[in-house]
Amino acid sequence: MILDYKGINIFYTDTGKGEVIVLLHGFLEDHTMWHDLVVKISNNNRVVCIDLLGHGKTGVLGYIHTMEEMATVVKTVLNHLRLRKYTIIGHSMGGYVALAFAKLFPNNIKGVCLLNSTYEADDSERKQIRTRANKMVQTNFESMVRMSFTNLFSAKSKLEHQEAFEEALQIALKTSLQGYMAAQEGMKRREDFSTSFAQTSYKKAILLGKKDTVINVKNTIKFAKNHNIDTHIFSEGHMSYIENKTDFIKEIVHFIEKT
């Protein structure tokens, strides 16, 4: 389905009936990453998937898509559907958007689950990486997307899940140059959500990949323990919905049942 927002199309899907679950994809992904999960949970829940700014079938607004702007787009869709209370699950960048949403609209949140994502802001090294990527991608788009996407998988996973990897890569390659750059700038500028995430009363969970090279797994486990946040560690890397699909679906279902 399509919704107009500031003159651009926002694409979303709305499946099932029951408690509302909002699924937010990560960088270089779109709503299709959630397909297997939607099939599993839409029998008992109303599941809304949204293509974030500059991704999938959703347009771009400029050269910086902040997490707050993306969260406002999500809220616009949910308001259009007349939904008031929901649980949000976000993968990677989608987790950043979920945290921005929860801070902006706390009264609407029943729970937040971070999948291969973090509450921390980028450190100086990560910001520099994003800046370099945005310079390089302007002249080497396809090679940059391939490299950044491939690095999210372990060597083992790329072989074991070759078909799913290739399908996800093709979706990544469909991201526009402007969408790529705007998301990188937005992620680079995002605030640290450590305090707001720790202090909120809604149900929380963090699902991590043991071999994830993007997330500081050790520090995240310590943070979660200190703040009584449920965690689960998958055996592989950053792309748990592919690398640990069965376990990923099981843990998401468990989280939804608890909220």
UniProtKB/TrEMBL annotation:
Q: Which domain of life is it from?
A: Bacteria
Instruction: Determine if Hydrolase is one of this entry's keywords.
Output: yes
InterPro entries (UniProt xref): AB_hydrolase_1, AB_hydrolase_fold, AB_hydrolase_sf
Keywords for this protein: Hydrolase
- The UniProt record lists the AB hydrolase-1 domain at 20-244
Which GO MF terms are attached to this record? hydrolase activity
Question: What name appears for this protein in its UniProt entry?
Answer: Alpha/beta hydrolase
